[in-house]
Amino acid sequence: MAENYGTVASGRKQTKARTGIRGRYGYMDFSFLLIICTLLVIGIIMMFSASYAWALEESGGESGTGYATKQMFMASVGVVAMIVISYIDYHKFFKPIASIGLYVLCVVLLLAVLLKGITEGGATRWIVIGPLNFQPSELTKFGMIILFSYLIVKNYKNMDKFTVGILPFGFLLGIVVVLLLLQPHLSCTILICLVSACLMFVGGVRWKHIFILFIVAVCALLLGVYILSRGDDGFTYFATRIQSWLDPFSDEKGKTWQTCQSLIAIGSGGVFGLGLGESRQKFLYLPETKNDFVFAIVCEELGFIGAVTIVLLFALLVIRGFYIASKAADKFGMLITIGVTVQVGIQAFFNIAVVSNLIPNTGISLPFFSYGGTALIMQLAEMGVVLNISRQASMDT
After folding, report:
1. What distance in Å separates the CA atoms of residue 76 and residue 69, rounded to the nearest whole number?
2. Which of 362, 360, 372, 293 is nearest to 74 (CA)?
3. Across the strands, what pairs with 118?
């Protein structure tokens, strides 16, 4: 008996695609692929520029390409993974052993981080698996999307009931939230909660039930932050970031240094920027230029015009992702596409908001730009899943 993946709500007639890259199932969405490749290429170039001075410093002046070389290798692995996955039927995730099994694996890895993780910058988020320095939270983002998409389709007719649409989802989400807050990884916690809430809303959960879950989640999050940020001198980890947000120049040579230097970099760029490779703040003034604050270097070197271009590319990625979701062959494909698209969109917004001091520093990376093998490979792998969904969808021209 064939699996029921959920029928599309519109009941539209399926038509063969007429544009794109022909694949095993159909045509890969070329526009979506082009946007991904454009962001990836620009991201590698900007990460190389942003990391050059720090690579020189850490290598004793021997080479400034250390981070860029590793990032290009990881990008190559990610692109291969994206292409391969675009040929693998996404319905293979529509099995308990795949969806629930992936969730269990994520929970086990998050526990392993707490027991034998590597601590950097006051947070324990990485574990070493053989030669790999792995960040389980990146896999958890995708794991939650797959699990929630599977459960929503299985229980679609009863999602408006509190005992079906809220309690089990809240319980599964709560386990992950606790494990992430213990790291602590506030940005990933908020991101997963928002993506999960979006999937539940699209899946048919009532507004009032989502509101109740939201209130509970906010209270639990605030309580968790309060408990975990208490130290001998009061608030430590989170309090420093709140202080940097409220008054970035209050301790510009101490705790608010990073935020202060980021704003200087953005302001120095002006409208057209200083020119590619001409950043001054990347010369050991602004920390984490290769990671969370690479967008500040984008603003400094490419200016307002360059920064807006990057923002528009992410906006186009989200819009095209929603278009693919609207054409998905079934609810399962629609939900996965929405989850992945919302995840990338929210993550990009949060990073840019942090860099510009719109919100407190939460330690979130910029998709396709920030240095990090686990994150980049997972992001490209997720894009591969969306491309596979586009192959099997009715992509009208």
Report:
1. 11
2. 372
3. 126
Structural tokens at position 332: 């399962």
Work out the average pLDDT over 271-277. Answer: 94
Contact 65, 55 (CB under 8 A): yes
% of residues, the chain, pLDDT over 90: 58
**Strand ranges in the chain using DSSP code E only, listed in sequence order:** 21-22, 27-28, 118-120, 123-129, 132-134, 230-231, 234-235
Output b/e per residue, 350-360; b: 16+ Cβ within 10 A.
bbbebbbbebb
Per-residue CA distances from 246 to 54, 82, 145, 176, 294 (Å): 28, 40, 34, 29, 22
Band of pLDDT at residue 394, cut at 50, 70 and 90:
low
User: Residue 117's closest CA among 103, 104, 136?
Assistant: 136
* Contact indicator for 321, 331 with CB cutoff of 8 Å: no
Pairing of strands 118-120, 27-28: unpaired
pLDDT > 70 in the chain, percent: 86
Q: How confident is the model over 99-117, as a mean pLDDT?
A: 93
Which residues, other chains included, contact 199 with Cβ-Cβ below 8 Å and sequence gap of 6+?
Answer: 145, 148, 149, 152, 335, 338, 339
Q: In this model, does residue 377 exceed pLDDT 90?
A: yes
pLDDT in tens, 279-294: 999 998 998 899 899 9
Residue 17 has pLDDT above 80, yes or no: no
Q: Which two tokens stand for residue 169?
A: 């989802």
Our CA angle for 77, 83, 84, nearest 5°, is 85
For residue 157, how many other CB atoms are within 10 A of its CB?
9
Sign of CA dihedral 246, 249, 253, 259: positive
> CB-based contacts of 217: which residues, under 8 Å, 6+ apart?
177, 193
Can you list the pairs that 104-110 forms with residues at least 24 positions away whose Cβ atoms lie under 8 Å? 105/139, 105/143, 106/136, 106/139, 106/140, 106/143, 106/144, 106/176, 107/175, 107/176, 107/179, 109/134, 109/136, 109/139, 109/140, 110/136, 110/137, 110/140, 110/176, 110/179, 110/180
